[in-house]
Amino acid sequence: MPNFTWDSERNARTGIAEAVFCSGKCLADIQAIIAYHIEQKTPALLTRLDTQVWSALPAEQQDKLDYDPVSRTALLEFTPPAELKSGIAIVAAGTSDLRVAQEAARTLLFNGFAAPMYLDIGVAGLWRLMDQLEAIRQHKIIIAVAGMEGAIFSVLGGLLKAPIIAAPSAIGYGISEGGTTALHSALASCAPGVMAVNIDNGFGAACSAVKIMNQFS
Amino acid sequence: MPNFTWDSERNARTGIAEAVFCSGKCLADIQAIIAYHIEQKTPALLTRLDTQVWSALPAEQQDKLDYDPVSRTALLEFTPPAELKSGIAIVAAGTSDLRVAQEAARTLLFNGFAAPMYLDIGVAGLWRLMDQLEAIRQHKIIIAVAGMEGAIFSVLGGLLKAPIIAAPSAIGYGISEGGTTALHSALASCAPGVMAVNIDNGFGAACSAVKIMNQFS
Amino acid sequence: MPNFTWDSERNARTGIAEAVFCSGKCLADIQAIIAYHIEQKTPALLTRLDTQVWSALPAEQQDKLDYDPVSRTALLEFTPPAELKSGIAIVAAGTSDLRVAQEAARTLLFNGFAAPMYLDIGVAGLWRLMDQLEAIRQHKIIIAVAGMEGAIFSVLGGLLKAPIIAAPSAIGYGISEGGTTALHSALASCAPGVMAVNIDNGFGAACSAVKIMNQFS
Amino acid sequence: MPNFTWDSERNARTGIAEAVFCSGKCLADIQAIIAYHIEQKTPALLTRLDTQVWSALPAEQQDKLDYDPVSRTALLEFTPPAELKSGIAIVAAGTSDLRVAQEAARTLLFNGFAAPMYLDIGVAGLWRLMDQLEAIRQHKIIIAVAGMEGAIFSVLGGLLKAPIIAAPSAIGYGISEGGTTALHSALASCAPGVMAVNIDNGFGAACSAVKIMNQFS
Amino acid sequence: MPNFTWDSERNARTGIAEAVFCSGKCLADIQAIIAYHIEQKTPALLTRLDTQVWSALPAEQQDKLDYDPVSRTALLEFTPPAELKSGIAIVAAGTSDLRVAQEAARTLLFNGFAAPMYLDIGVAGLWRLMDQLEAIRQHKIIIAVAGMEGAIFSVLGGLLKAPIIAAPSAIGYGISEGGTTALHSALASCAPGVMAVNIDNGFGAACSAVKIMNQFS
Amino acid sequence: MPNFTWDSERNARTGIAEAVFCSGKCLADIQAIIAYHIEQKTPALLTRLDTQVWSALPAEQQDKLDYDPVSRTALLEFTPPAELKSGIAIVAAGTSDLRVAQEAARTLLFNGFAAPMYLDIGVAGLWRLMDQLEAIRQHKIIIAVAGMEGAIFSVLGGLLKAPIIAAPSAIGYGISEGGTTALHSALASCAPGVMAVNIDNGFGAACSAVKIMNQFS
Amino acid sequence: MPNFTWDSERNARTGIAEAVFCSGKCLADIQAIIAYHIEQKTPALLTRLDTQVWSALPAEQQDKLDYDPVSRTALLEFTPPAELKSGIAIVAAGTSDLRVAQEAARTLLFNGFAAPMYLDIGVAGLWRLMDQLEAIRQHKIIIAVAGMEGAIFSVLGGLLKAPIIAAPSAIGYGISEGGTTALHSALASCAPGVMAVNIDNGFGAACSAVKIMNQFS
Amino acid sequence: MPNFTWDSERNARTGIAEAVFCSGKCLADIQAIIAYHIEQKTPALLTRLDTQVWSALPAEQQDKLDYDPVSRTALLEFTPPAELKSGIAIVAAGTSDLRVAQEAARTLLFNGFAAPMYLDIGVAGLWRLMDQLEAIRQHKIIIAVAGMEGAIFSVLGGLLKAPIIAAPSAIGYGISEGGTTALHSALASCAPGVMAVNIDNGFGAACSAVKIMNQFS
Q: A37: which residues sit within 8 A by CB, 6+ positions away?
């Protein structure tokens, strides 16, 4: 008997379908969860599914998974709706932050949203932001991803009417290793309207954005 | 000449009127800011205005200030609109968290929102939450305030469709002194849809909620 | 001559048989300890015995070990008593916490106790806890295992008469990496009757529970 | 209307009567809570009631409070039962730890237990412990209080069959300021059967001990 | 005999006259140092001279001191040269950072430099920076002072040819209390050419700027 | 389409050509960046290019890269000018610090500077420093690299007129693991004129030195 | 009955007479301890006796105490021997470190040692150290006191045959506030023969030196 | 030309021969250092020489090295004197601490000392210490090695006249991972005469002991 119970009612209760956090789970448990979803034909989002764990899955399970190695996410028994919803944009400071930005994008997709991604919008090159500012302004909610010193969170918060969901990325070294500096920058922002989720938590940033959007649709 | 320039256009740009963060400012600068607003008849919100600083202000300035010692906020040249907007609720884990909950409430008022406050909604007494759950569910956005271990953030996130803006409170001692444990609990929450602002940042939680509401009105 | 002396009297003195903490010990020392126990026919519990160390042991020693890779524990020269004692339950927030929950269960077994395990009892899905609450209530002492934000410790402490021994698990990332957030949540719990052991210390949680049970039998 | 609701059913549910954590509460709220209890004639334990707050209470409330400045606790509308229960001992490393030890003793009293206190049982003078060892051994559960390096937790854990509830005390300076070193020593103890509560949490240590005792009576 | 020896040759050796760090020194020692300088007619800069210490000095010493309470600095036996050197600018994020900015300005003055100060140049109001950018660009070296999240360090580093000496200010609360977040932002800056001195070290920032200028004059 | 936009105007704006921080970027993105530069014939500096990533590049790209495994840097489409500029020296405490010192040297080269390197100038052997002091004194700016306790930063600051750019190195273990102790020593230096960049940030130290030199040429 | 037992045999056992750590003890307990010593005519050393506590003692107790406010120590019923032993020197980086250096000197005196004190021996002024080097070299053991970055510990360790007992001092601000940077510098020293005691622990440094000296006399 | 200079005069100056800290050095540099010593026939101690680095050395260099994988030390061109000096003992809490204890023993040997090693002297089994106490008491100086909570440092300090040099070992997990808890326990010890070196610094503990012994011979 597999070591899990599926929270099929979570969607009804919170508006967010339950996802499977694969980190720390043994291969057997992950396989059992996948088999359950295939059998039940219920869609699932798997996060933190490392490439080596994915590679160890049986081929017939791999075939069923839409796997993305950059974000380490997999979609299972999932067909996106014909029309995706809009209103959310993802802004990432550098290409090194793609891991997190992509996890957010995939989670949004799983919840029925298409979100344009604005890359390389760092503070060291402010004009790149200025070039895209009008396009970014068209969205209701901004998910911002940045590592290092995370200065972009405050800059965006000071320029936009949209609330900023800051997803700090564990890109950095020395004093900023692990993403704490970027997280603290988001929390200590002198610009109002900046909220933070955990470091590397693209999934959580997307869920928060979805919950907001769903409250007003 | 006073040491400040007033950002009168911030409202237009970000939808949030600039507030005056009084902590670290000397008395003379605070007085100059107040005088400027009285002269210009522009409304202002002063935060982190400690009681002893307030007491040191000249009586004619005190008279103009609607001061609340619990939240250490003052409203200046401000008349609330005839009809306040709704959609935001404040949930606080204990009466010790009133400082922060009240700062959020006053900031909401300054931005035109009335927000009911649900107090003493702690995890050690879960049925209190259950008693109020239906009432809390009627709101679009929840500002949750808690110190100690901050378990209420996850409990609310798991029970509600509304996004949770967690405002950790610096209530605690030993390992939770200063509010870090509550903050970390919000960030590490296993329930999706929980976002955090800085410890004791009732002002920032309210601004985030206002920015969200304004995007959809 | 092996680099160790066996504390055969510890059982008499503290009621807990000495275990072998294998982490940091070189292979030769671990082999010597195993050989000693086989020779003396004295039962032993080995903890933190990594799979690769276990694999490097000679086959004849492997045969003598009842090894569990999830908890990294091995039982040696041990036959459980015909009738196991009861009174202790293990509650784990997610399947990712099995490593720790299983270490506790195996330590309990080695000390003569059978403990039912309640899995996937997280705060994001409170009704799962509610479903099992009556069953959990039948036990004298609860060992609770959780990573992330560890909110379940407080929820259990507020609902049960039983004391909670919190064993935080190093499941998490970003701000909760390494288990500190879960540990701090246990220590800062606003619910009385929550005690903590070190992160990932399923062994210590079980020893504490055994010591309590033994005092009253 | 006072800012609180009283959890009168907590006793029924968890076996521990709710206490009032006064830290962070404003004077008006504390007064309202006291008045409520006097009116309802329900016993209450107030913790973290600083001497200056106590001094600011109206004389008629002070008269009703059995206040102890060392532990900063007050008993209200409380008459101890004719016969107090036994089974718990308090061991404190130094007289500087009295604050915490006394908070534990008063909480035990409020829950119907009398607990002998063994003072000055530090590691630097091991024979003091040896002198008292036989007396200490007569108790089912030991609450141990120590600051500095907290070595006594491990020494007791290695010598006794009783479980040790370690209550680290914020006595120390430099690297041990705030009690973290003592707390970490308890958590990292190489002796099995040591559990920890938060720094300075004599109240929590006592509640845990009471919950254990109540499970077996 | 006073507890000090004066390093009169430091100026010759490092190009920076020795200053007196008053924090932690007892009143008697500070008085002796002042008396020595008055007697020797050698100029001195006193830093971290708290107002209450200054108030406790004998009136005849106070008269000799050019004391500034905001920066807690005093100049003694010092006459600025007829013509002050230029090339250094001070940029401060908010008026709360004046303490540090002023310490830098006074140290520059003591070393023969006049530095214009640009205040309220925060990231939440980027256009204020843009308004002053041309003026700021005229200087060889920029001393930047900011607390909170310190995003301005990176913004300046990305816009200017001048090296940025970041002096983080201990303005903030919660996660940014004590200035660590601002310091880490400076160190982790994604813009090249940002160097940091210790939190609140306006003195050190100024000395570094002076050493640079002196190398090229 | 590659996931990047090249900041070709950065040089004009800040005087420093943009470099490519390879850490966290996937192989495909790094290849695209290299291809772009080869095509455009624009010089580039790649930093944090790990040997295993370099080995995975196609041979024709490897041939175009001047790669140095010690500093993990690569120069691309770069021909040093006939005459390199001088004025900067690099002082390293031990050979273990070569990684960082070399990253600084290569960055200086890419910006047109030749910098002599003084190795093994530690505090435990002060006479080695004394032997080289006159030679070191001939430079305008000193980049100092040290791990462990970083005492050399203060010693140099007290002996030289040149400003010291401290680049702490992540050499150490136990309490100094990761370089924080060396960084803190630089920041807390009692010698004026010491500025710090992030741990292991030889690139940033060099950029700061270049920006200074360029301001005065 | 006073809350203490006197460890009169400690001297016999460890060679160090027990001292009274007054921090955290209530006035009544301190008075009882003093009274006991006066009655028994046994010498005592009181440490961490704050001036305000000392001022609150009855005049007849004050008269019996040889109190030093800088080190916050008091000697009681103590007459120094006619001839004090030598072999230990105290080196302090600045006059701000006197608090700690003096605590060491008074503890040495109480144990029969006279120790010369070398003040203002900081790294920023290396020649002061050089001037005194020959004198310092005459001692068997060096107690070194420094705050800030504590570079002097390594410099002394590299120049002397004597072992260095580093007593870090809580002098500093920002990143070095509380003395941690100085402590870490001592522990991470690249010079062999440097040992550390806790921050501000002049008492412990002296006891260690005395224990060493006593082993060889 | 190799990247190093050999400090052949260190022995004369500090009484301790220079050792080679191999961590962070590249293979080529280590080979050059070994070749230099073979050529010069000067003895050397190599520390932190990982087994894989040692394996990569040319066979003719391996033959010249007396290598010990447990302590990762190698002796080169070294013949111990006919008669080794005594006076120092090594006490280790568990066999997991052998790495550090052995590094100390090998460093002592290189400096001409033989030191008996007392293993498995932990606090959880106090009688083991008592059994060996008389033997341990015969030594002038004790090097104590322990990880976890490091309680043995205080126990030894309270029982012995000898000074204790505490070498914390990075054995532990969760809150004690990396050895910080053991280090803090040594520093915060309530027993006088305990000094600490860095975590895992068996080399430094031995050098300190040698420096002490040499001062008195």
A: A43, A44, A76, A77
